[in-house]
Automatic annotation (TrEMBL):
Residues 169-343 form the Peptidase M16 C-terminal domain. Belongs to the peptidase M16 family. One of its GO terms (molecular function) is metal ion binding. It comes from the Bacteria. Pfam families: Peptidase_M16, Peptidase_M16_C. Residues 16-161 form the Peptidase M16 N-terminal domain. PANTHER family: METALLOPROTEASE, MITOCHONDRIAL-PROCESSING PEPTIDASE SUBUNIT ALPHA. This is Insulinase family protein.
Length: 411
């Protein structure tokens, strides 16, 4: 039996479903291949604003009815925006799946962007910006995108700017949707105990009547990178730091080996090299981690840590020392085996989350036109060699290739 089932409607919308018989919860959503990187300079933040406005009224429902439709049966309705994706999703008891499917279709395709609701939600988003600016550990990570991608749209903050968000009108949302939405670049994804024919039947009911929608959007690839070092004084008590560089794209064959290398360096395990070297051995940080994010045409690798101002240089030197070790010393047989087992275990546990699995199905179909099974990924991990990891470390993690963003306490 295949891991998932896929059906394409005449209008281009794809339905992907995975049946999980041991659950009573149905997770489903629309994954749209639209994100903040698709915004023009005058549209910064509009994709995220659209995410908010989807709950504020459709052609047949007011905001109150949208918010209460699933809540009254114990369900949840939510959404999120990334650089390349916009997702509207819901979780309900499986006997309410049709109700969720209907509502998700409505908010995805029939939003009306009422003027009064735009004004109210504008204030909410400005408060969201203020909250984010008051959280330096989050702000430094987001701002680091601009250090790496500089004048490219991947460097823009998903929330936008106060100036851009303050000016959006209904016509701006409608134009952004018209410029970016295509029915062959969106997927309805679901994970539940329901059989695929039930999901397919509801797809015919709610989605088949929709017209084919096409747009001529053309994403501009990122290409020019210049290492940069920026120090910013902030009214904070701890230094917050990012070190990183561009990395491999989603389709690059080195993606999984580099993901493993990033995991060895600063993954969620307490035994990561950075955690052992900087926190456990020297007690210089509370949190230190490494993350690798992939995009269609590039990737982003970053190391985050927070430390005392007087320990900033020492902590940075310890981080660079660990990168140097990865470049110069290949993993031993036991280290390599342990790293593979750890990564495979983490991936398997992540797939235990059905809601995360549902989102992964939709994103994979949009990005790769396929879904790699866990066993296929495991086979790739098992084939990784110590020499391959060392070559990748020298290719990506060379000191001359790194950029820095430091938030430094003003006093």
């Amino acid at each position: 039996m295949p891991d998932y089932q896929l059906h394409t409607l005449p209008n281009g919308i794809r339905i992907i479903h995975k049946q999980v018989t041991h659950t009573k919860i149905a997770h489903s959503g629309f994954m749209l291949d639209i994100g903040s990187r698709d915004e023009k300079p005058e549209e910064l933040g509009i994709a995220h604003f659209w995410e908010h406005m989807a709950f504020k009224g459709t052609k047949k429902r007011k905001s109150f009815h949208i918010l209460n439709r699933l809540e009254t049966v114990g369900g949840e309705l939510n959404a999120y925006t990334t650089k390349e994706k916009l997702c509207f999703y819901a979780s309900v008891l499986d006997n309410h799946f049709e109700k969720a499917f209907d509502l998700l279709t409505d908010i995805t395709f029939n939003s009306v962007f009422p003027g009064k609701e735009i004004e109210k939600e504008r204030g909410v988003i400005l408060e969201e910006m203020a909250m984010y600016l008051d959280t330096p550990e989050d702000a430094v990570i987001d701002e680091f995108d601009n250090v790496i991608f500089q004048n490219h749209s991947l460097g823009n903050n998903i929330l936008g700017t106060r100036e851009s968000v303050s000016g959006f009108k209904k016509a701006d949302f409608l134009k952004f949707i018209q410029d970016n939405m295509s029915t062959d670049r969106l997927v309805f994804c679901s994970v539940s105990s329901l059989p695929f024919d039930k999901v397919q039947k509801l797809g015919q009911k709610f989605l088949a009547p929709l017209p084919r929608i096409e747009s001529s959007r053309d994403r501009q690839p990122f290409s020019l990178y210049q290492p940069n070092r920026i120090n910013l004084e902030k009214p904070i008590t701890q230094a917050h730091c990012m070190i990183g560089c561009p990395a491999y794209s989603l389709s690059d064959e080195k993606r999984i080996p580099f993901f493993m290398l990033s995991n060895i360096l600063g993954g969620p395990g307490m035994n990561s090299r950075l955690n052992l070297a900087v926190r456990e051995k020297h007690g210089l940080v509370y949190t230190i981690d490494a993350n690798y994010t992939t995009y269609i045409d590039t990737g982003l690798f970053g190391i985050y840590f927070g430390t005392e101002k007087k320990q900033l240089n020492r902590t940075t030197s310890l981080v660079l020392k660990e990168l140097k070790i990865l470049r110069e010393k290949p993993l031993g047989t036991v280290q390599l085996h342990t790293a593979k087992e750890q990564l495979m275990g983490q991936l398997a546990m992540a797939e235990e989350s059905n809601i995360g699995l549902m989102m992964m199905l939709g994103k994979s179909i949009l990005d790769l036109d396929k879904v790699e099974s866990l066993n296929e990924i495991f086979d790739q991990i098992r084939g990784i060699t110590a020499r391959q990891l060392q070559e990748i470390a020298n290719e990506i993690l060379h000191e001359d290739n790194l950029s820095y963003l430091n938030y430094i306490p003003a006093n």
